[in-house]
Design a protein that fits this description.
alpha/beta, single chain, 4 strands, 4-stranded parallel beta sheet, globular, 8% strand, 7 helices
Length: 169
């Protein structure tokens, strides 16, 4: 599900019900805002469908796991997961909460050449200001916080699905 086919809480609920009626046994979310994300997660929980996919950067992975998300693709993507391993996490989350939302890359048809480039190198879709945050996340990384996060995710049953091709791109 993306902003293109599930751009608000009502549309995501409708799309999840449509996909379940068509035989889906899980729903993959890619890029939606937090309110839409949680509306979809709640609907999947209500219907007994697994909710998997990408985690919006504004959403704490611990909250997503606690509320029933069971699998995160690409370890986030970007800094979504490792942000929870930063000693500056509260400060960084507050800065993310108060920043202007970046434009969506998935609000309509995406040209094929853009898709190919993004698959090979997702950094091409990264807004310049995000690189500053990534650097701060890396500079404040805590092994102890990351181990706590890993234990928490294991306890909740949250799967991590790394994208190994990214090691090569």
């Amino acid at each position: 599900l993306t902003r293109a086919n599930a751009g608000n809480p009502q549309r995501i609920v409708e799309e999840i019900n449509r996909q379940q009626a068509a035989g889906a046994d899980f729903i993959k979310v890619i890029e939606v805002d937090p309110a839409t994300f949680f509306a979809g997660l709640e609907e999947c929980n209500r219907l007994g469908l697994r909710y998997i996919g990408h985690l919006p950067p504004e959403i704490d992975i611990r909250e997503a796991a606690t509320r029933g998300m069971r699998s995160v693709k690409h370890l986030g993507p970007r800094d979504t997961q490792v942000l929870a391993c930063s000693t500056a996490e509260p400060e960084l989350r507050e800065a993310m909460r108060t920043r202007e939302a970046p434009p969506s890359h998935l609000s309509g048809p995406i040209p094929e050449h853009v898709i190919r480039r993004a698959i090979a190198n997702p950094v091409l879709l990264t807004q310049p200001g995000e690189f500053v945050r990534y650097r701060r996340v890396i500079d404040t990384y805590s092994d102890a916080k990351c181990r706590e996060l890993a234990a928490f995710l294991a306890d909740t049953g949250m799967w991590q699905v790394p994208t190994l091709i990214r090691i090569r791109t």
